């Protein structure tokens, strides 16, 4: 209604101007001049009213289509707009609608992913908490000092696992949110390997697993030593959990003009073909062999991949040519 009122005011103002021009022509002009001027003024008035009304209808059409978008509609054409400025407005509105539709779809996917992640986290935390509750109940009813000591040790181990799980989930959340501070400086592969193996040295020794390291002295890349070490530590830990006592884990590192590569292999059974596509999925654990104990929560490799990708690198899993699992960390060189 506001647009119609504006159009009417414009027409009234134009008519008044035309009347003044016509009166001036009557005073100063001849009969033929007055006639032709009157016809010209009348035709121009009709043209103005027609164009303005059509423009109003086109704008009203776009307003109605935008209103349908706001009430759940998605398919909008913004059609029948042939004037230059309205065509530009139509194109920009179309871009805006497409962008909003893509953003809405992305948010829906992220919302579903968040819901699934929360469900997985709830399940993963509930399991050890339930076990802790049972351990505490068993501890309260145990009189044997030796059995009580074993129960306390098992309880401490479970608490350490829960603490590691929570800390790891927080790190993954930081990576997902882009809040993880990653340094970009020259980092020696040797320093990364030594830092990654230090926390696992005693466990590797107790399991009787040998670690062979073959890293070029000049091998280095641009990245963050701390986070790369943590990624490598999770990979070595995964290999350790799937390698029998007496087995070997090999870590190789080299640099060339294109990239720095760190390769980790083990002498375990390797990765089953059906597990390879999901090996880096969060909370995914390959089915343990019959009689074997399941270890971990299935987020170590996921965290490792997230940390490597946050530094601009890539992490891939495969099976070695002579058996066993193989993990390749690749950090492209900034200057080729």
Task: Please give a structural write-up.
By secondary structure, this protein is an alpha+beta fold. Helix content is 60%, strand content 13%. It has helices spanning 2-28, 31-70, 84-140, 145-177, 189-197, 201-207, 225-241, 300-310; strands at residues 185-188, 210-215, 220-223, 248-255, 259-266, 314-319, 325-332. A five-stranded mixed beta sheet has the order 2-4-5-7-6. A hairpin with a 5-residue loop joins strand 6 and strand 7. Helix 4 runs parallel beside helix 8. The chain is elongated, with a radius of gyration of 36 Å.
Strand content: 5-15%
Low-confidence stretches: none
**What is the β-strand count?**
7
Number of helix segments?
8
Summarize the structure.
The chain has 336 residues and is of the alpha+beta class. It is 60% helix and 13% strand.
Write the layout of secondary structure elements.
Elements: H1 2-28, H2 31-70, H3 84-140, H4 145-177, E1 185-188, H5 189-197, H6 201-207, E2 210-215, E3 220-223, H7 225-241, E4 248-255, E5 259-266, H8 300-310, E6 314-319, E7 325-332
Parallel strand pairs: 2-4
Antiparallel strand pairs: 1-3, 4-5, 5-7, 6-7
Defining key terms:
alpha+beta; 8 helices; 7 strands; 13% strand
